[in-house]
Specification:
Strand order of the largest sheet: 11-5-4-3-1-2-13-14
Structural class: alpha/beta
Shape: globular
Largest sheet: 8 strands, mixed
CATH architecture of the largest domain: 3-Layer(aba) Sandwich
Number of domains: 3
CATH superfamily of the largest domain: Response regulator
CATH topology of the largest domain: Rossmann fold
Order of helices and strands: EHEHEHEEHEHEHEHEHEHEEHHHHHHHEE
Strand content: 15-25%
CATH class of the largest domain: Alpha Beta
Number of strands: 14
Helix content: 40-55%
Length: 412
């Protein structure tokens, strides 16, 4: 009987990113296993005393201070980076932070903001990979390249020990910014802190400050009040590919790549960036009508009627305020609605076409391709985390911290 591989998982589960990574790992193991897991959410420090005695086949771990010591055991290892830079010779899972920053900038600009800001975290003594700074730089470059003034930026301490004092300082900084301002936070936790400071300063979100985070932790995003927009990242797929790479190392297969990238999926737009340009009342009415009827086959004439202007007059104001035509805005909003349904549901494309008022599947495919430069099927295949291979019904056993094999407890 073949030996069941024993894999040590040193991945926290307090945030959606960690849980998604674990879900992807479990999906791969259930499909190609069985594997036996020892899962320690507390990290390497907790398991260090018994690591030598565990006869492990492989390790998937978040970065910690003792990574080099763990590597000395010669066990196949996949490294999920956060605090440190990539480790040469090791399989590294990294997040595309540059794309995160660019996407945040694009979303806020599309919402119609003219002033911008970024809130991130101060680089800590143990941190060697400045992911927050990378996101800020990409965000700032995108904003500046579009012809806007360089965004203001603010840094918070990651430990949150002096949050009461920091919240006051953050609130004062937010008050000093030109309004309305579109603000990107380096991640959802930081975005939640910004939203709290906005309440303290009496700044309405999104009318005074529009906020977008990153990671799309639904719990964090939905308790901010109003719900916070966020950039989804393919952590589940990255976890699946991490397990795939580890399996190759454990079985002696050559590695295709030593870098696994957690790419962005799409922007999950919520109320925190549902901004309508207030200084141009007719454009504001038009934008509200377009957003309220994103599921309907609306026309430019419908939009002009809702705005209370002639089509020609509204077209002129649209181009002056937004830099694009009414039709381009309708197509952008409708295309984004199609994309959300493709990624957030399992509805067939034909059914999505019916829901959104398209004549048939060919019509929606042509419409979507014009905006996204690919078919709906290709977009779903590339971006959706739901497209992982189907899994077997049997699950691999999990090993408790005592080392006893258990089939029901601590199952991922």
């Amino acid at each position: 009987m073949a030996k069941i591989p024993k894999v040590i998982l040193l991945v926290e589960s307090s945030r959606a990113s960690g849980r998604a990574l674990l879900t992807g790992i479990a999906s791969y193991a259930n499909h190609y296993g069985p594997w036996s897991f020892y899962w320690e959410p507390g990290g390497l420090e907790k398991v260090w005393p018994v690591l030598r005695t565990m006869d492990a086949s492989g390790i998937i771990l978040r970065d910690v201070d003792k990574v080099e010591e763990a590597l000395a055991y010669g066990i196949p290892t996949v490294f999920i980076g956060h605090y440190q830079t990539e480790i040469p010779g090791l399989v590294n899972v990294v997040t595309d932070s540059e794309a995160v920053g660019r996407t945040g900038a694009e979303h806020l600009m599309q919402c119609g903001f003219k002033h911008f800001a970024f809130c991130g975290y101060v680089k800590s003594p143990i941190e060697k990979a400045p992911w927050s700074e990378t996101r800020r730089e990409a965000f700032s470059e995108s904003i500046h390249s579009a012809g806007f003034a360089p965004p203001a930026h603010y840094e918070l301490a990651m430990d949150g020990q002096n949050w009461s004092d920091e919240r006051l300082a953050l609130a004062r900084w937010l008050e000093s910014l030109p309004k309305p301002v579109g603000l990107m936070a380096c991640n959802d936790d930081c975005g939640g802190q910004v939203m709290e400071a906005c309440k303290l300063a009496g700044l309405p979100v999104p009318d005074a400050v529009g906020v977008i985070g990153a990671d799309n932790d639904e719990l964090v995003c939905n308790i901010t009040g109003p719900p916070m927009s966020s950039i989804g990242i393919h952590f589940e797929r990255a976890g699946y590919e991490a397990a795939q790479a580890l399996h190759g190392m454990m079985t002696g297969k050559p590695l295709v790549s030593r870098r696994i990238t957690a790419s962005i999926s799409h922007v999950v737009a919520r109320r925190s960036t549902d901004f309508v340009i207030a200084e141009e009342v007719h454009v504001a009415r038009a934008l509200r009508h377009i957003r309220d009827h994103a599921r309907d086959p609306i026309t430019v004439t419908d939009v002009a009627r809702a705005a209370g202007l002639s089509r020609r007059a509204l077209e002129k104001r649209f181009r002056h305020v937004l830099g694009r035509s009414i039709l381009e805005e309708v197509r952008r909003v409708r295309t984004d609605q199609i994309a959300r349904l493709l990624l957030e549901t399992d509805l067939p494309v034909a059914e999505i076409a019916g829901l959104l008022g398209f004549e048939d599947i060919q019509h929606i495919a042509r419409y979507f391709r014009a905006g996204k430069r690919m078919s709906p099927v290709a977009y779903r295949k590339i971006h959706s985390v739901r497209r992982l291979p189907s899994t077997r019904s049997q699950n691999g056993d999990f090993i408790s911290q005592s080392g006893v094999v258990r089939s029901k407890r601590r199952r991922l």
